[in-house]
Each structure stands twice: as structure tokens, then as C-alpha cells.
Amino acid sequence: MKYVILLISFFFGFSVFLNAQETNLLWFEDIEIAKSYAAEHESNILMVFSGSDWCKPCIQFKKDILESKDFTSWGSSKLIVLYLDFPARKKNKLSPSQTEHNEKLAEQFNKSGAFPNIFLLDKKAKVLSNPPFKGQEVNDFIGSLETNLK
Description:
The protein is built from six helices and five strands; from the N terminus they run H-E-H-E-H-H-E-H-E-E-H. The protein is globular and about 35 Å long. By secondary structure, it is of the alpha/beta class. Strand 4 and strand 5 (about 125-130) form a beta hairpin. The protein has one domain (about 25-145): Glutaredoxin (3-Layer(aba) Sandwich). About 50% of the residues lie in helices and about 15% in strands. The protein has helices at about 1-20, 30-40, 55-65, 70-75, 95-110, 140-145, and strands at about 25-30, 45-50, 80-85, 115-120, 125-130. Strands 1-3-2-4-5 form a five-stranded mixed β-sheet, with helices on one face.
């Protein structure tokens, strides 16, 4: 009887683990890795330019949208996040190679230097939309993305 209970517990725990994995939104910091993953999994890319330790709207976007259960559940099968950070504090400083990578992408996509600046890209990094974040609710932001998903 103990083994049956253990076996049932194991399968229950494993199914919870699998279910959690299905709603996990993947984050990347390198565009080539993100494009490769997106192509392999037929996903779109949500590229986010953020100032994680100085930009209040960036902090709000990350917390209220990217890390929300609703967004994670909705987006886990549709897109991946390419998170490009531009921290100001020394303790959060990125490696020189990551800084260079992020700056090159900013020169290409974020010439205005807006933060947060969000782009929905297809799997080849072609811009599908540039949805603004103005503090809207997660479902409103999702709606702004859905019209442009491929």
C-alpha cells in the first residue's frame, strides 16, 4: 500500500512539474540564440529594451506584465523574451560583451533611446509591431500583441 501511495504521489508531482514547464516563458539575452530557438520552436520574439535599475516604467513592465501569471500562461506557447538590459548601477553592470551586444541592437532597433521599448519580432527578427507600454493592464497588453502574432 505504501508503494501505491508513493507511486501516485510521484505521478502527481511529475504532472504538476510538467504543467509548470508548459507555462514557463523563456528569456534570452542573445539575439542569435533567441532567433535559433524561435525558428526551432516556431515562436515569436518579444524584444524588450529595459533599464532594470533606474527606469520605473521598465521595472513596472517587468513586474506587471512579463512576470505576471496571465502573461506567462498566455505567452509560453507563442513567444520568447529577448531581454536587453541597460543598468545604471555599478553592481548591476553587464559584461563588456553583453553591453556591446545590447548597444548594437539598440543602434538598430532603439535609435530614440526609449525605455521601455518593446518590439514583437518574428522568428527571423523582422519587426511585426512596436507595442507601447503605458502602464496598461496585462490583458490589454496581450491584446496589443495578439493582433500582430504570426
